[in-house]
Amino acid sequence: MMSKIFSRKVSVVFAITTIATVFGFSWSTSLSQSQILAPASISSKSSRTLKGHSAWVYAIAISPDGKTLTSGSYNGIIKIWNLHTGELLHSINGHSDAVESLAISSNGHILASGGWDHRIKLWNLETGELIRTFSGHADDVESVAFTPDGKILASGSWDQTVKLWNVQTGEVIRTLNQNGTVRSVAISPDGQLLACGTEDGQMMIWQLKTGKLKTPLAAHDKAIWSVAFSPDGKQIATGSYDRTIKLWNPETGELLHTLVGHNNAVWSVAFSPDGQSIASGSYDRTIKLWNPETGELLRTLSGHNKGVWSVTFNPLGNTLASGSADETIKIWQVSSHSKAATPSLPSVSELEALLFTQPEMINSKDLYSLTRKVYDQIHEAWQQPDQSEENLVYRVGVAGDGAILAYKSVKPDVSNSTLVTAKNDLLYKLVKRPAATGEPIVHFQVVFTKQGILEVTPWRGYRRLS
Question: Which residues 6+ apart lie within 8 Å of 25 measured at CB?
Fold first, then answer.
């Protein structure tokens, strides 16, 4: 199988070497590849925070009309909210133990909940009244999902089974036996396939009508907490305790991409309705948005102060909701498009001139953090570290948010070399936006050493703030 891993491991040891005077003494550091942070990305604030739960918010779901948000928590409480106003409509003592999963039928009438009390319950979404209880699992119900027509409900359990239920009668249509604890289930948009992720990292793809196992995959090294089909059914996303998200072809079982960026377990994944982005929620307290076509990290949302258990989009794809162990739900406004328009960039000569026309920020309390951000961006773009006869040195101007805005080679006598041309092209591609008028920049020295090592240091060293 071919795969693309977006956290590239390079045999050459990269380092940031800094020797400076900080608070009156000299120091030196060298950071290995494994210690370097992921590429800097955009942080954002939520537009609204919903409070009311007094325990971890394990599960959330949004109705097909986009008007209603539901949430389930560790203490068995289910809440139903007006998504637009944030008003709490109903609070239900739904289960005698944690509510691990929620799903809403395609007609928007029924809310299904799965709990650690081994039961599945169906609720009237409008009134909050209990419709029916399904009993049959011998252990915690970890995940529930409706078929597109709303006639069948799938449930995955700690008892190592997936059960298919007739929604109208409550009868078990079929039981699919797994080789391990079932953490998550998802049904394809055409209703033909069911995917489930297990505690031991296996993903099973079943033919829903026949109950035949189509594709068993050793998908992850650790538990798969979440699975999701893309809107066109051509991809499956899996989020794992191993900190990665993987994208699969459900027909062939081929691994398409591995998305690396979270620094702790990935608990939830969800596709946007247009299929142009994937959201992932993690124990690292962040939500990340990814391009499923390229594997590119588009955006990072920070705001929860504990792990993010669940994420989901509204039907328009411009709103994302997240449930967290901090007992809150956050509502985020996100673009329905994966790529934003990019302003036209200055020419190379204009970028060089910017170094000396923009005000220079010499004393910055974030100097060390900025050094890491600059290093991350350049080393990620430097896909094939090379060696030259001499060090290639650049002066690079960086904004306070870490954006590279300008650069200039400090050895013009070797500007005609092939390697220098390649480095110029590399740095130009990293300039994502023009500098704002009067925007202060920090100057860095960037060295591509003749041994193939990248070094980044503040141009004027580290200075103590006065």
Answer: none
Contact 162, 144 (CB under 8 A): no
- Look up residue 272 and give its two tokens: 């946007």
Taking the C-alpha atoms of residue 413 and residue 417, their distance in angstroms, rounded to an integer, is 9
Q: In what order do the strands lie in the sheet with 286-290?
A: 266-271, 278-282, 286-290, 297-302
Q: Using CA atoms, how far apart are residues 29 and 56, in angstroms rounded to an integer? A: 40
> What would the two tokens of residue 177 be?
């036996």
Is residue 417's pLDDT more than 80? no
Average pLDDT of the residues in 25-31: 29
Given the candidates 2.130.10.10, 2.40.50.140, 1.10.760.10, 3.30.1490.270, the CATH classification of the domain at 48-333 is: 2.130.10.10
3-class secondary structure, 357: helix
- Are the C-beta atoms of residues 68 and 83 closer than 8 Å to each other? yes
Query: How far is CA 466 from each of CA 293, 362, 364, 368, 392, rounded to the nearest angstrom?
Result: 48, 11, 10, 17, 33
**pLDDT (0 to 100) of residue 418:** 59
CA distances for 59 relative to 30, 106, 168, 230, 251, angstroms? 42, 18, 24, 20, 29
> In this structure, are residues 262 and 280 in contact, taking their beta carbons and an 8 Å threshold?
yes
Rounded Cα–Cα distance for residues 224 and 202 (Å):
7
pLDDT tens digits, one per residue of 184-231: 999 999 999 999 999 999 999 999 999 999 988 999 999 999 999 999
Q: What is the DSSP string of 235-248?
A: -EEEEETTSEEEEE
Residue 318's Cβ-side half-sphere holds a number of Cα atoms within 13 Å equal to 3
Q: Where are the domains positioned within the chain?
A: 18-36+341-458, 48-333
Mean residue pLDDT of the chain comes to 83
Classify 100 as helix, strand or coil.
strand
